[in-house]
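Can you give me the bound-state structure? Components:
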Amino acid sequence: MSTSRSEKAYHHGDLRAALVSAALELLEGGGEAALSLRAVARTCGVSAMAPYRHFAGKEDLLEAVAARGFEDLAEALGTADASAAGAEALAAQGAAYVAFACRRPALFRLMFMTPCRKPDRPRAYGILEARAAALAGPAMPAEDLTLAAWSLVHGLAALILDGRIPPEAGGTGAVARRITLHLARLMAGVPEPSA
Amino acid sequence: MSTSRSEKAYHHGDLRAALVSAALELLEGGGEAALSLRAVARTCGVSAMAPYRHFAGKEDLLEAVAARGFEDLAEALGTADASAAGAEALAAQGAAYVAFACRRPALFRLMFMTPCRKPDRPRAYGILEARAAALAGPAMPAEDLTLAAWSLVHGLAALILDGRIPPEAGGTGAVARRITLHLARLMAGVPEPSA
DNA sequence: CCTGTATGTTTACACCGCATACAAGCGCAG
DNA sequence: CTGCGCTTGTATGCGGTGTAAACATACAGG
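Here's the bound-state model for the whole set.
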């Protein structure tokens, strides 16, 4: 087999994917502090400089990891959205968003910590946007609703991750669902008050 | 003068405060990457190990810096709250919160990046809580309203800082005020919709 | 004055990201 | 098959970091 890769080949096979996976593992167990390029290389059984053949630098690797995280997030939001209809669907998305952050805190931090040089929204944004647009009522333009919903769940997730919210509330995700549902209902069914 | 401090005194006078200030300066110009214990010490014209006489380690110093940041934030929220009444006061707080984050992004990140071992809320929380409680209507319990408002502005700030929101919207803070005002009005004046 | 204690300094180590120079394996003309 | 070249991984080294230990200095109270 000309393309077979022996176990101990000098060439790794596909290091790039292995590096991203290793980085993710290190991240999820041990936090961001444990994520050093050298440690990643060590985990893959490879020299410290090897990653530089596949990534421009540490930041580049982290970007790849974050991209993978955004894929996972989009998937989670998609299935959550499909699990219900109307305002409940948006609430489900909100709960899923917070749950994702709680389940993979270090990854979530990484995803939103990078100053994000490329301003393109993650694919997950589209999923939220679609649902929010469908719910937008007279009280608030669709654009503001999308932004408000995103800000709400993102802020909630961030505060939980930073330990700013009592654990019994944050842990279950009940608060996330309740608050998002409140928001969704208010946005959907309510006319602009007097002012 | 027994207490006079010569320019080149061996003892600094009050290093602790100087270190915190220096750390803040380094943080505000140059981002978090520029904040190394050694750089802080250098800025104060002192050896690299000197800070350890006043702080248990880098994390401890950062905690002190964050505490100072929370003081400033509380003050900003307080004056904003006093600048208006009713729902507009909460909107003003929201705008001030986001403005604070935009004005001092690195500090804001630091304040909410530490996993926050001591679960006590910042003093700023009380200011928001009071206003939210005063506004709480039948649509949402006061506790949820407080949490929702905080999450909303915090998430908005975080998303802006991460470059996830178009600059023309985030920069001015208009979005923050608009959205928070929407939230405040909805919470204050609107009965629970049919469901 | 003499001594104890708080405060800074020096030296040292392990780790990090990264630059450069080198070696090992694969693919493809001939 | 042979040999060349390119990709991939290695070895070594530099400047930087956080921090531990041992040392030096200035002030305070007897």
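A couple of observations. Chain A is about 65% helix and 0% strand. Chain A touches chain B through 47 residues (CB under 8 Å).
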